[in-house]
Amino acid sequence: MSANLFECQHLAKRYGGNTVVDDLSFSIAPGECLGVIGPNGAGKTTTIRMCLGLTTPDAGRITAFGLDMPRDALAIKAQLGVVSQIDTLDPDFSCAENLLVYGRYFGMSAAQIRPRIPQLLEFAALSHKADAKPGELSGGMKRRLSLARALVNDPRLLMLDEPTTGLDPQARHLMWERLQLLLQQGKSILLTTHFMDEAERLCSRLLVLDHGRKIAEGRPRELIAQHLEPDVVEVYGNGALALAQAEEHAALRALAARVEVSGETVFFYTAQALPLLAALGQHHQLRTLHRPANLEDLFLKLTGRQIREDG
Amino acid sequence: MNTTTVATTPSHWAAPRLSGRWWPVFLRNLLVWKKLAIPSLVGNIAEPLMWLVAFGYGMGALVGQVTIATPQGNMAVPYILFLASGSICMSAMNAASFEALYSAFSRMHVQKTWDGIMNAPVSLDDVVLAEMLWAGFKALFSVTAIMAVMLGLGISHSPKLLLAWPVLLGVGITFSCIALVFNALAQGYDFFTYYFTLFLTPMMFLSGVFFPREQLPGVVRAISDWLPLTNAVELVRPLFMDQWPEQAWLHAAVLLAYTVAAFWLALALTRKRFAR
Fold this sequence. Notes:
The structure holds 2 protein chains of 2 kinds.
Chain A: E1 6-15, E2 18-28, E3 33-37, H1 44-51, E4 59-64, E5 67-69, H2 73-77, E6 80-83, H3 95-104, H4 110-113, H5 116-123, H6 139-150, E7 157-161, H7 169-184, E8 188-193, H8 196-202, E9 205-210, E10 213-218, H9 220-227, E11 231-236, H10 240-245, H11 250-253, E12 258-262, E13 265-270, H12 273-280, E14 287-292, H13 295-303
Parallel strand pairs in A: 3-8, 3-9, 6-7, 7-8
Antiparallel strand pairs in A: 1-2, 1-4, 4-5, 9-10, 11-13, 11-14, 12-13
Chain B: H1 22-35, H2 37-63, E1 65-70, E2 73-78, H3 79-110, H4 113-118, H5 124-153, H6 161-185, H7 190-206, H8 218-224, H9 228-240, H10 248-274
Antiparallel strand pairs in B: 1-2
Helix pairs in contact in B: 1-5, 2-3, 2-5, 3-5, 3-6, 3-9, 5-6, 5-10, 6-9, 6-10, 9-10
Protein backbone atom coordinates (compact mmCIF):
# COMPACT_ATOMS: atom_id res chain seq x y z
CA MET A 1 0.00 0.00 0.00
CA SER A 2 1.43 3.34 -0.98
CA ALA A 3 0.79 6.55 0.93
CA ASN A 4 -0.68 8.08 -2.19
CA LEU A 5 -4.37 8.82 -2.35
CA PHE A 6 -4.49 8.22 -6.05
CA GLU A 7 -2.13 6.56 -8.48
CA CYS A 8 -2.01 5.98 -12.23
CA GLN A 9 0.64 3.70 -13.70
CA HIS A 10 1.53 3.46 -17.37
CA LEU A 11 -1.90 4.48 -18.62
CA ALA A 12 -2.56 4.24 -22.34
CA LYS A 13 -5.64 4.92 -24.41
CA ARG A 14 -6.03 4.60 -28.15
CA TYR A 15 -8.98 5.51 -30.32
CA GLY A 16 -8.62 3.68 -33.60
CA GLY A 17 -5.02 4.26 -34.64
CA ASN A 18 -4.79 7.46 -32.63
CA THR A 19 -2.94 7.28 -29.30
CA VAL A 20 -4.60 9.81 -27.00
CA VAL A 21 -2.83 8.90 -23.76
CA ASP A 22 0.59 7.26 -23.87
CA ASP A 23 2.41 5.65 -20.92
CA LEU A 24 1.18 8.19 -18.40
CA SER A 25 2.01 7.74 -14.72
CA PHE A 26 1.28 10.12 -11.85
CA SER A 27 0.13 10.14 -8.27
CA ILE A 28 -1.65 12.45 -5.88
CA ALA A 29 -0.59 12.68 -2.24
CA PRO A 30 -3.08 13.55 0.51
CA GLY A 31 -3.63 17.32 0.72
CA GLU A 32 -1.93 17.95 -2.60
CA CYS A 33 -3.24 19.91 -5.56
CA LEU A 34 -1.94 18.36 -8.78
CA GLY A 35 -2.40 20.48 -11.90
CA VAL A 36 -2.58 18.93 -15.34
CA ILE A 37 -1.80 21.40 -18.09
CA GLY A 38 -1.51 20.87 -21.81
CA PRO A 39 -2.86 22.20 -25.11
CA ASN A 40 -6.26 21.14 -26.45
CA GLY A 41 -6.18 17.49 -27.42
CA ALA A 42 -3.26 16.71 -25.08
CA GLY A 43 -5.32 13.97 -23.39
CA LYS A 44 -6.37 15.78 -20.20
CA THR A 45 -10.08 14.99 -20.38
CA THR A 46 -9.48 11.40 -21.52
CA THR A 47 -7.18 10.95 -18.51
CA ILE A 48 -9.88 12.23 -16.16
CA ARG A 49 -12.46 9.97 -17.82
CA MET A 50 -10.19 6.99 -17.24
CA CYS A 51 -9.66 8.06 -13.63
CA LEU A 52 -13.44 8.06 -13.18
CA GLY A 53 -13.88 4.65 -14.78
CA LEU A 54 -15.98 6.17 -17.57
CA THR A 55 -13.63 4.84 -20.20
CA THR A 56 -11.36 1.81 -19.82
CA PRO A 57 -7.63 2.29 -20.41
CA ASP A 58 -6.01 0.04 -23.03
CA ALA A 59 -3.10 -0.46 -20.66
CA GLY A 60 -2.05 0.55 -17.19
CA ARG A 61 -3.48 0.59 -13.73
CA ILE A 62 -5.43 3.09 -11.66
CA THR A 63 -5.76 2.80 -7.89
CA ALA A 64 -7.48 5.17 -5.49
CA PHE A 65 -7.87 4.94 -1.72
CA GLY A 66 -6.40 1.44 -1.96
CA LEU A 67 -9.11 0.38 -4.42
CA ASP A 68 -8.84 -0.65 -8.07
CA MET A 69 -10.37 1.21 -10.99
CA PRO A 70 -12.50 0.18 -12.86
CA ARG A 71 -13.31 -2.87 -10.69
CA ASP A 72 -14.23 -0.75 -7.65
CA ALA A 73 -15.40 2.25 -9.66
CA LEU A 74 -18.49 2.89 -7.56
CA ALA A 75 -16.67 2.56 -4.22
CA ILE A 76 -14.00 4.98 -5.48
CA LYS A 77 -16.54 7.47 -6.81
CA ALA A 78 -18.29 7.46 -3.45
CA GLN A 79 -15.17 9.27 -2.12
CA LEU A 80 -14.66 11.59 -5.12
CA GLY A 81 -16.09 14.96 -6.02
CA VAL A 82 -16.20 15.75 -9.73
CA VAL A 83 -16.69 19.00 -11.62
CA SER A 84 -16.75 18.25 -15.33
CA GLN A 85 -15.88 20.69 -18.10
CA ILE A 86 -19.52 21.05 -19.15
CA ASP A 87 -22.11 21.90 -16.50
CA THR A 88 -24.45 18.98 -15.88
CA LEU A 89 -26.73 20.79 -13.44
CA ASP A 90 -30.41 19.89 -13.53
CA PRO A 91 -32.17 22.82 -15.21
CA ASP A 92 -35.57 21.88 -13.74
CA PHE A 93 -34.40 22.03 -10.12
CA SER A 94 -33.51 24.96 -7.89
CA CYS A 95 -29.96 25.21 -6.52
CA ALA A 96 -31.05 23.61 -3.24
CA GLU A 97 -32.90 20.81 -5.05
CA ASN A 98 -29.87 20.18 -7.26
CA LEU A 99 -27.82 19.48 -4.13
CA LEU A 100 -30.51 17.29 -2.59
CA VAL A 101 -31.04 15.20 -5.71
CA TYR A 102 -27.31 14.80 -6.27
CA GLY A 103 -26.71 13.70 -2.69
CA ARG A 104 -29.19 10.87 -3.21
CA TYR A 105 -26.97 9.44 -5.95
CA PHE A 106 -24.42 8.83 -3.17
CA GLY A 107 -26.97 6.84 -1.21
CA MET A 108 -27.52 9.68 1.25
CA SER A 109 -30.98 10.21 2.70
CA ALA A 110 -32.80 13.54 2.51
CA ALA A 111 -32.33 13.84 6.28
CA GLN A 112 -28.55 13.54 5.84
CA ILE A 113 -28.38 15.99 2.95
CA ARG A 114 -30.73 18.75 4.07
CA PRO A 115 -28.55 20.07 6.94
CA ARG A 116 -25.60 20.30 4.52
CA ILE A 117 -27.44 22.34 1.90
CA PRO A 118 -27.21 25.78 3.60
CA GLN A 119 -23.48 25.21 4.28
CA LEU A 120 -22.82 24.17 0.71
CA LEU A 121 -24.76 27.11 -0.71
CA GLU A 122 -22.90 29.47 1.59
CA PHE A 123 -19.59 27.99 0.50
CA ALA A 124 -20.61 28.59 -3.12
CA ALA A 125 -21.72 32.16 -2.25
CA LEU A 126 -25.19 31.18 -3.45
CA SER A 127 -27.23 31.41 -0.22
CA HIS A 128 -29.40 34.09 -1.82
CA LYS A 129 -30.02 31.85 -4.86
CA ALA A 130 -31.23 28.73 -3.04
CA ASP A 131 -34.55 28.77 -4.89
CA ALA A 132 -33.21 29.96 -8.25
CA LYS A 133 -32.85 27.53 -11.13
CA PRO A 134 -29.50 27.14 -12.92
CA GLY A 135 -30.91 28.98 -15.96
CA GLU A 136 -31.15 32.12 -13.81
CA LEU A 137 -27.50 31.91 -12.68
CA SER A 138 -24.42 33.52 -14.22
CA GLY A 139 -21.60 31.35 -15.54
CA GLY A 140 -19.57 31.77 -12.36
CA MET A 141 -22.53 30.90 -10.15
CA LYS A 142 -23.22 27.76 -12.15
CA ARG A 143 -19.62 26.62 -11.78
CA ARG A 144 -19.72 27.28 -8.03
CA LEU A 145 -22.97 25.33 -7.77
CA SER A 146 -21.27 22.48 -9.63
CA LEU A 147 -18.43 22.68 -7.10
CA ALA A 148 -20.88 22.71 -4.17
CA ARG A 149 -22.63 19.72 -5.70
CA ALA A 150 -19.31 17.88 -5.96
CA LEU A 151 -18.83 18.46 -2.20
CA VAL A 152 -22.18 17.03 -1.15
CA ASN A 153 -20.61 13.66 -0.20
CA ASP A 154 -17.68 15.31 1.63
CA PRO A 155 -15.15 13.79 -0.82
CA ARG A 156 -11.48 13.19 -0.04
CA LEU A 157 -10.37 14.00 -3.57
CA LEU A 158 -11.78 16.50 -6.05
CA MET A 159 -11.39 16.11 -9.80
CA LEU A 160 -11.93 19.41 -11.55
CA ASP A 161 -11.83 19.58 -15.34
CA GLU A 162 -11.19 23.21 -16.35
CA PRO A 163 -13.29 24.64 -13.53
CA THR A 164 -12.77 28.29 -14.50
CA THR A 165 -12.90 28.17 -18.29
CA GLY A 166 -15.23 30.87 -19.60
CA LEU A 167 -15.44 32.83 -16.34
CA ASP A 168 -14.74 36.53 -15.91
CA PRO A 169 -11.81 37.54 -13.64
CA GLN A 170 -14.02 38.22 -10.60
CA ALA A 171 -15.72 34.84 -10.84
CA ARG A 172 -12.38 33.15 -11.44
CA HIS A 173 -10.82 34.74 -8.35
CA LEU A 174 -13.78 33.69 -6.21
CA MET A 175 -13.42 30.12 -7.51
CA TRP A 176 -9.68 30.17 -6.67
CA GLU A 177 -10.44 31.44 -3.19
CA ARG A 178 -12.85 28.57 -2.62
CA LEU A 179 -10.41 25.99 -3.93
CA GLN A 180 -7.68 27.39 -1.65
CA LEU A 181 -10.10 27.02 1.24
CA LEU A 182 -10.73 23.37 0.35
CA LEU A 183 -6.98 22.72 0.22
CA GLN A 184 -6.62 24.30 3.66
CA GLN A 185 -9.32 21.94 4.90
CA GLY A 186 -7.10 19.07 3.78
CA LYS A 187 -8.89 18.05 0.59
CA SER A 188 -6.82 16.87 -2.35
CA ILE A 189 -7.43 18.18 -5.85
CA LEU A 190 -6.69 17.06 -9.38
CA LEU A 191 -7.17 20.07 -11.63
CA THR A 192 -6.88 20.52 -15.37
CA THR A 193 -6.56 24.05 -16.64
CA HIS A 194 -5.54 26.30 -19.52
CA PHE A 195 -4.74 29.17 -17.20
CA MET A 196 -1.13 29.28 -16.12
CA ASP A 197 -1.78 31.79 -13.35
CA GLU A 198 -4.41 29.38 -12.01
CA ALA A 199 -1.96 26.49 -12.11
CA GLU A 200 0.76 28.56 -10.45
CA ARG A 201 -1.55 29.86 -7.74
CA LEU A 202 -3.27 26.61 -6.76
CA CYS A 203 -1.09 23.68 -7.68
CA SER A 204 1.68 22.31 -5.53
CA ARG A 205 2.77 20.14 -8.43
CA LEU A 206 2.25 20.24 -12.18
CA LEU A 207 2.05 17.70 -14.93
CA VAL A 208 2.58 19.01 -18.45
CA LEU A 209 0.91 16.84 -21.08
CA ASP A 210 1.29 17.01 -24.83
CA HIS A 211 0.10 14.49 -27.41
CA GLY A 212 -0.92 12.21 -24.54
CA ARG A 213 2.59 12.07 -23.04
CA LYS A 214 3.97 13.57 -19.87
CA ILE A 215 6.64 16.04 -20.99
CA ALA A 216 7.40 17.62 -17.61
CA GLU A 217 6.48 17.23 -13.97
CA GLY A 218 7.37 19.18 -10.86
CA ARG A 219 6.68 22.18 -8.65
CA PRO A 220 5.77 25.27 -10.72
CA ARG A 221 8.76 27.41 -9.61
CA GLU A 222 11.21 24.53 -9.97
CA LEU A 223 9.94 23.72 -13.44
CA ILE A 224 10.45 27.32 -14.52
CA ALA A 225 13.96 27.41 -13.05
CA GLN A 226 14.79 24.11 -14.66
CA HIS A 227 13.61 24.90 -18.18
CA LEU A 228 13.88 28.68 -18.54
CA GLU A 229 16.18 31.64 -18.08
CA PRO A 230 14.89 33.73 -15.17
CA ASP A 231 14.16 36.94 -17.14
CA VAL A 232 12.12 37.72 -20.23
CA VAL A 233 12.22 40.92 -22.26
CA GLU A 234 9.35 41.32 -24.68
CA VAL A 235 9.89 43.77 -27.53
CA TYR A 236 7.15 45.24 -29.72
CA GLY A 237 6.91 47.95 -32.36
CA ASN A 238 8.46 48.92 -35.68
CA GLY A 239 11.69 47.10 -36.28
CA ALA A 240 11.21 44.56 -33.52
CA LEU A 241 11.26 41.67 -35.95
CA ALA A 242 14.47 42.96 -37.51
CA LEU A 243 16.18 42.60 -34.10
CA ALA A 244 15.43 38.92 -34.18
CA GLN A 245 16.50 38.36 -37.76
CA ALA A 246 18.81 40.96 -39.25
CA GLU A 247 22.58 40.30 -39.43
CA GLU A 248 23.43 43.77 -38.04
CA HIS A 249 21.70 42.96 -34.72
CA ALA A 250 23.62 39.75 -34.03
CA ALA A 251 25.52 41.41 -31.17
CA LEU A 252 22.32 42.43 -29.45
CA ARG A 253 20.93 38.91 -29.82
CA ALA A 254 24.08 37.55 -28.25
CA LEU A 255 23.05 39.29 -25.02
CA ALA A 256 20.11 36.88 -24.72
CA ALA A 257 20.31 33.14 -24.17
CA ARG A 258 17.36 32.52 -26.45
CA VAL A 259 15.26 34.62 -28.87
CA GLU A 260 11.72 33.71 -29.93
CA VAL A 261 9.32 35.42 -32.31
CA SER A 262 5.58 35.21 -32.00
CA GLY A 263 3.57 37.36 -34.41
CA GLU A 264 4.96 40.91 -34.11
CA THR A 265 6.55 40.32 -30.70
CA VAL A 266 10.11 39.25 -29.99
CA PHE A 267 10.90 37.45 -26.73
CA PHE A 268 14.44 37.59 -25.33
CA TYR A 269 15.17 35.04 -22.60
CA THR A 270 18.17 35.90 -20.45
CA ALA A 271 19.82 35.47 -17.09
CA GLN A 272 21.12 39.05 -17.18
CA ALA A 273 18.57 41.52 -18.41
CA LEU A 274 20.41 44.80 -17.71
CA PRO A 275 22.93 44.81 -20.62
CA LEU A 276 20.16 43.71 -22.96
CA LEU A 277 17.82 46.46 -21.75
CA ALA A 278 20.59 49.02 -22.16
CA ALA A 279 21.18 47.90 -25.74
CA LEU A 280 17.46 47.94 -26.48
CA GLY A 281 17.32 51.49 -25.09
CA GLN A 282 19.12 52.64 -28.26
CA HIS A 283 16.05 51.75 -30.32
CA HIS A 284 13.62 54.50 -29.38
CA GLN A 285 10.80 53.30 -31.62
CA LEU A 286 10.51 50.01 -29.69
CA ARG A 287 8.48 49.26 -26.59
CA THR A 288 9.92 46.76 -24.13
CA LEU A 289 8.49 44.81 -21.23
CA HIS A 290 10.86 43.27 -18.72
CA ARG A 291 9.37 40.56 -16.49
CA PRO A 292 10.33 37.31 -14.73
CA ALA A 293 9.81 34.12 -16.68
CA ASN A 294 6.49 32.49 -15.84
CA LEU A 295 4.60 29.26 -16.38
CA GLU A 296 3.15 30.50 -19.63
CA ASP A 297 6.68 30.82 -21.04
CA LEU A 298 7.40 27.32 -19.85
CA PHE A 299 4.21 26.00 -21.34
CA LEU A 300 4.89 27.63 -24.71
CA LYS A 301 8.49 26.46 -24.70
CA LEU A 302 7.46 22.87 -24.01
CA THR A 303 4.42 22.66 -26.26
CA GLY A 304 5.28 25.19 -28.96
CA ARG A 305 3.57 28.37 -30.07
CA GLN A 306 1.64 27.04 -33.03
CA ILE A 307 -2.15 26.84 -32.78
CA ARG A 308 -3.42 23.27 -32.36
CA GLU A 309 -5.81 21.98 -34.99
CA ASP A 310 -8.61 21.50 -32.49
CA GLY A 311 -7.64 24.60 -30.52
CA MET B 1 4.13 -3.79 -6.57
CA ASN B 2 2.58 -4.84 -9.82
CA THR B 3 3.59 -2.16 -12.33
CA THR B 4 1.65 -2.82 -15.50
CA THR B 5 -1.63 -4.59 -15.67
CA VAL B 6 -3.26 -4.63 -19.06
CA ALA B 7 -6.86 -3.76 -18.39
CA THR B 8 -9.32 -5.73 -20.45
CA THR B 9 -12.19 -3.70 -21.79
CA PRO B 10 -15.38 -5.38 -20.61
CA SER B 11 -17.66 -6.35 -23.48
CA HIS B 12 -20.57 -4.04 -24.17
CA TRP B 13 -22.63 -7.21 -24.39
CA ALA B 14 -21.85 -8.36 -20.84
CA ALA B 15 -24.91 -9.18 -18.75
CA PRO B 16 -26.59 -6.16 -17.12
CA ARG B 17 -25.05 -5.30 -13.74
CA LEU B 18 -27.99 -3.82 -11.89
CA SER B 19 -28.26 -2.54 -8.35
CA GLY B 20 -30.64 -0.53 -6.19
CA ARG B 21 -28.89 2.68 -7.31
CA TRP B 22 -31.50 3.09 -10.07
CA TRP B 23 -33.94 4.38 -7.46
CA PRO B 24 -32.46 7.89 -6.88
CA VAL B 25 -32.38 8.34 -10.68
CA PHE B 26 -36.02 7.30 -10.96
CA LEU B 27 -36.81 9.61 -8.05
CA ARG B 28 -35.08 12.48 -9.84
CA ASN B 29 -37.36 12.06 -12.85
CA LEU B 30 -40.37 11.78 -10.59
CA LEU B 31 -39.47 15.06 -8.85
CA VAL B 32 -39.11 16.92 -12.15
CA TRP B 33 -42.37 15.44 -13.40
CA LYS B 34 -44.24 16.41 -10.21
CA LYS B 35 -43.58 20.04 -11.11
CA LEU B 36 -45.28 19.56 -14.48
CA ALA B 37 -47.77 16.80 -13.67
CA ILE B 38 -50.99 18.71 -14.32
CA PRO B 39 -50.14 20.06 -17.81
CA SER B 40 -48.60 16.67 -18.54
CA LEU B 41 -51.84 14.96 -17.48
CA VAL B 42 -53.88 17.12 -19.84
CA GLY B 43 -51.56 16.31 -22.75
CA ASN B 44 -51.52 12.62 -21.88
CA ILE B 45 -55.26 12.10 -21.85
CA ALA B 46 -56.48 14.79 -24.28
CA GLU B 47 -55.18 13.07 -27.41
CA PRO B 48 -56.35 9.51 -26.69
CA LEU B 49 -59.67 10.95 -25.62
CA MET B 50 -60.06 12.77 -28.93
CA TRP B 51 -59.39 9.53 -30.80
CA LEU B 52 -61.95 7.82 -28.66
CA VAL B 53 -64.64 10.44 -29.08
CA ALA B 54 -64.06 11.07 -32.78
CA PHE B 55 -63.65 7.44 -33.81
CA GLY B 56 -65.64 5.71 -31.11
CA TYR B 57 -68.79 7.77 -31.31
CA GLY B 58 -68.42 8.97 -34.92
CA MET B 59 -67.28 5.72 -36.53
CA GLY B 60 -69.13 3.69 -33.94
CA ALA B 61 -72.44 5.07 -35.22
CA LEU B 62 -71.53 3.79 -38.71
CA VAL B 63 -69.98 0.50 -37.66
CA GLY B 64 -72.33 -0.45 -34.86
CA GLN B 65 -71.08 -3.72 -33.41
CA VAL B 66 -67.84 -5.57 -33.98
CA THR B 67 -67.58 -9.33 -33.68
CA ILE B 68 -64.60 -10.71 -31.77
CA ALA B 69 -63.54 -14.26 -30.95
CA THR B 70 -63.51 -15.32 -27.27
CA PRO B 71 -62.99 -18.70 -25.60
CA GLN B 72 -66.80 -18.84 -25.34
CA GLY B 73 -67.24 -18.29 -29.06
CA ASN B 74 -67.87 -15.13 -31.09
CA MET B 75 -69.09 -12.08 -29.27
CA ALA B 76 -70.51 -8.84 -30.64
CA VAL B 77 -69.31 -5.72 -28.82
CA PRO B 78 -69.99 -1.99 -29.35
CA TYR B 79 -67.31 -0.42 -31.54
CA ILE B 80 -66.39 2.10 -28.85
CA LEU B 81 -65.53 -0.70 -26.44
CA PHE B 82 -63.51 -2.43 -29.15
CA LEU B 83 -61.65 0.80 -29.85
CA ALA B 84 -61.15 1.79 -26.20
CA SER B 85 -59.61 -1.57 -25.33
CA GLY B 86 -57.17 -1.31 -28.25
CA SER B 87 -56.37 2.38 -28.03
CA ILE B 88 -55.41 2.15 -24.37
CA CYS B 89 -52.56 -0.16 -25.45
CA MET B 90 -51.62 2.41 -28.07
CA SER B 91 -51.59 5.08 -25.35
CA ALA B 92 -49.28 2.98 -23.19
CA MET B 93 -47.02 2.50 -26.22
CA ASN B 94 -46.98 6.19 -27.13
CA ALA B 95 -46.46 7.47 -23.59
CA ALA B 96 -43.54 5.09 -22.96
CA SER B 97 -42.02 5.77 -26.38
CA PHE B 98 -42.16 9.56 -26.03
CA GLU B 99 -40.58 9.41 -22.60
CA ALA B 100 -37.83 6.95 -23.54
CA LEU B 101 -37.02 8.84 -26.75
CA TYR B 102 -37.48 12.60 -26.53
CA SER B 103 -37.23 13.00 -22.75
CA ALA B 104 -34.51 10.42 -22.17
CA PHE B 105 -32.51 11.85 -25.07
CA SER B 106 -32.79 15.33 -23.54
CA ARG B 107 -31.43 14.03 -20.28
CA MET B 108 -28.75 11.87 -21.88
CA HIS B 109 -27.51 14.06 -24.72
CA VAL B 110 -28.75 17.64 -24.39
CA GLN B 111 -28.68 18.33 -20.65
CA LYS B 112 -25.89 15.79 -19.95
CA THR B 113 -27.82 14.75 -16.84
CA TRP B 114 -26.59 11.18 -17.23
CA ASP B 115 -22.95 12.32 -17.27
CA GLY B 116 -23.52 14.19 -14.03
CA ILE B 117 -25.14 11.15 -12.43
CA MET B 118 -22.30 8.86 -13.51
CA ASN B 119 -19.76 11.08 -11.75
CA ALA B 120 -21.50 9.86 -8.60
CA PRO B 121 -21.47 6.16 -7.64
CA VAL B 122 -24.24 5.20 -10.08
CA SER B 123 -23.41 2.99 -13.07
CA LEU B 124 -24.67 3.47 -16.61
CA ASP B 125 -26.55 0.17 -16.32
CA ASP B 126 -28.55 1.54 -13.39
CA VAL B 127 -29.22 4.82 -15.22
CA VAL B 128 -30.62 2.92 -18.22
CA LEU B 129 -32.69 0.72 -15.90
CA ALA B 130 -34.08 3.81 -14.17
CA GLU B 131 -35.01 5.42 -17.50
CA MET B 132 -36.65 2.20 -18.64
CA LEU B 133 -38.75 1.91 -15.48
CA TRP B 134 -39.52 5.59 -15.51
CA ALA B 135 -40.93 5.46 -19.06
CA GLY B 136 -42.97 2.44 -17.95
CA PHE B 137 -44.29 4.47 -15.05
CA LYS B 138 -45.22 7.35 -17.36
CA ALA B 139 -47.19 4.88 -19.49
CA LEU B 140 -48.95 3.58 -16.38
CA PHE B 141 -49.82 7.12 -15.38
CA SER B 142 -51.39 7.87 -18.80
CA VAL B 143 -53.21 4.58 -18.83
CA THR B 144 -54.63 5.17 -15.36
CA ALA B 145 -55.94 8.60 -16.32
CA ILE B 146 -57.53 7.27 -19.52
CA MET B 147 -59.04 4.31 -17.68
CA ALA B 148 -60.60 6.67 -15.18
CA VAL B 149 -62.18 8.63 -18.03
CA MET B 150 -63.40 5.40 -19.66
CA LEU B 151 -64.96 4.31 -16.39
CA GLY B 152 -66.55 7.74 -16.08
CA LEU B 153 -67.99 7.47 -19.59
CA GLY B 154 -69.30 4.01 -18.76
CA ILE B 155 -67.45 2.40 -21.67
CA SER B 156 -66.46 -0.63 -19.59
CA HIS B 157 -67.19 -1.77 -16.06
CA SER B 158 -65.34 -5.06 -16.26
CA PRO B 159 -63.81 -6.06 -12.90
CA LYS B 160 -60.92 -7.49 -14.92
CA LEU B 161 -59.82 -3.90 -15.66
CA LEU B 162 -57.93 -4.21 -12.40
CA LEU B 163 -55.84 -6.89 -14.07
CA ALA B 164 -55.49 -4.88 -17.29
CA TRP B 165 -53.72 -2.23 -15.25
CA PRO B 166 -50.50 -4.18 -14.43
CA VAL B 167 -50.58 -5.72 -17.91
CA LEU B 168 -50.51 -2.20 -19.38
CA LEU B 169 -47.55 -1.33 -17.15
CA GLY B 170 -45.80 -4.32 -18.73
CA VAL B 171 -46.75 -3.05 -22.20
CA GLY B 172 -45.27 0.35 -21.32
CA ILE B 173 -42.05 -1.33 -20.16
CA THR B 174 -41.79 -3.36 -23.38
CA PHE B 175 -42.07 -0.23 -25.52
CA SER B 176 -39.74 1.77 -23.29
CA CYS B 177 -37.05 -0.92 -23.79
CA ILE B 178 -37.53 -0.84 -27.57
CA ALA B 179 -37.44 2.96 -27.59
CA LEU B 180 -34.20 3.01 -25.57
CA VAL B 181 -32.52 1.06 -28.39
CA PHE B 182 -33.28 3.96 -30.72
CA ASN B 183 -32.35 6.48 -28.04
CA ALA B 184 -28.90 4.86 -27.88
CA LEU B 185 -28.48 5.25 -31.65
CA ALA B 186 -29.88 8.77 -32.02
CA GLN B 187 -27.75 11.74 -33.03
CA GLY B 188 -30.66 14.18 -32.76
CA TYR B 189 -34.40 14.45 -32.24
CA ASP B 190 -35.13 14.11 -35.98
CA PHE B 191 -34.20 10.46 -35.80
CA PHE B 192 -37.22 9.77 -33.60
CA THR B 193 -39.61 11.01 -36.30
CA TYR B 194 -38.55 8.00 -38.37
CA TYR B 195 -39.20 5.70 -35.47
CA PHE B 196 -42.70 7.07 -35.03
CA THR B 197 -43.68 7.29 -38.70
CA LEU B 198 -41.97 4.13 -39.94
CA PHE B 199 -42.46 1.84 -36.96
CA LEU B 200 -45.09 2.93 -34.45
CA THR B 201 -47.71 4.39 -36.80
CA PRO B 202 -47.84 1.37 -39.17
CA MET B 203 -47.97 -0.89 -36.13
CA MET B 204 -51.00 1.02 -34.85
CA PHE B 205 -52.88 0.05 -38.01
CA LEU B 206 -51.62 -3.54 -38.11
CA SER B 207 -52.28 -4.51 -34.51
CA GLY B 208 -56.05 -4.52 -34.39
CA VAL B 209 -56.43 -1.25 -32.52
CA PHE B 210 -58.94 0.32 -34.94
CA PHE B 211 -60.35 -2.67 -36.78
CA PRO B 212 -60.26 -6.46 -36.32
CA ARG B 213 -57.10 -8.07 -37.72
CA GLU B 214 -59.32 -10.51 -39.62
CA GLN B 215 -59.61 -7.72 -42.22
CA LEU B 216 -55.88 -7.95 -43.01
CA PRO B 217 -54.53 -10.02 -45.93
CA GLY B 218 -52.98 -13.33 -44.81
CA VAL B 219 -49.32 -12.37 -45.19
CA VAL B 220 -49.77 -9.07 -43.39
CA ARG B 221 -51.64 -10.82 -40.65
CA ALA B 222 -48.85 -13.34 -40.19
CA ILE B 223 -46.45 -10.43 -39.64
CA SER B 224 -48.96 -8.72 -37.41
CA ASP B 225 -49.07 -11.81 -35.15
CA TRP B 226 -45.53 -11.05 -33.99
CA LEU B 227 -45.80 -7.30 -33.47
CA PRO B 228 -45.55 -6.28 -29.82
CA LEU B 229 -48.63 -4.07 -30.02
CA THR B 230 -50.72 -6.94 -31.42
CA ASN B 231 -49.78 -9.14 -28.49
CA ALA B 232 -50.56 -6.29 -26.07
CA VAL B 233 -54.00 -5.74 -27.61
CA GLU B 234 -54.74 -9.49 -27.59
CA LEU B 235 -53.96 -9.56 -23.88
CA VAL B 236 -55.79 -6.41 -22.83
CA ARG B 237 -58.91 -6.34 -25.04
CA PRO B 238 -60.74 -9.36 -23.57
CA LEU B 239 -60.19 -7.99 -20.04
CA PHE B 240 -62.27 -4.94 -21.01
CA MET B 241 -65.12 -7.30 -21.90
CA ASP B 242 -64.80 -9.33 -18.71
CA GLN B 243 -63.31 -12.24 -20.68
CA TRP B 244 -59.99 -14.10 -20.31
CA PRO B 245 -57.52 -13.67 -23.18
CA GLU B 246 -56.86 -16.67 -25.44
CA GLN B 247 -53.28 -17.96 -25.42
CA ALA B 248 -52.44 -15.43 -22.73
CA TRP B 249 -49.08 -17.07 -21.97
CA LEU B 250 -48.01 -16.94 -25.59
CA HIS B 251 -48.77 -13.21 -25.83
CA ALA B 252 -47.07 -12.55 -22.51
CA ALA B 253 -44.04 -14.57 -23.64
CA VAL B 254 -43.77 -12.57 -26.89
CA LEU B 255 -43.87 -9.29 -24.96
CA LEU B 256 -41.34 -10.59 -22.45
CA ALA B 257 -39.01 -11.69 -25.25
CA TYR B 258 -39.19 -8.23 -26.82
CA THR B 259 -38.57 -6.63 -23.42
CA VAL B 260 -35.52 -8.70 -22.51
CA ALA B 261 -33.96 -8.57 -25.98
CA ALA B 262 -34.57 -4.84 -26.38
CA PHE B 263 -33.26 -3.98 -22.91
CA TRP B 264 -30.08 -5.95 -23.50
CA LEU B 265 -29.58 -4.38 -26.92
CA ALA B 266 -30.34 -0.90 -25.59
CA LEU B 267 -27.84 -1.40 -22.77
CA ALA B 268 -25.10 -2.67 -25.09
CA LEU B 269 -25.61 0.22 -27.54
CA THR B 270 -25.74 2.78 -24.74
CA ARG B 271 -22.53 1.38 -23.19
CA LYS B 272 -20.90 1.66 -26.60
CA ARG B 273 -22.13 5.23 -26.96
CA PHE B 274 -20.67 6.23 -23.59
CA ALA B 275 -17.37 4.36 -23.97
CA ARG B 276 -15.96 7.11 -26.22
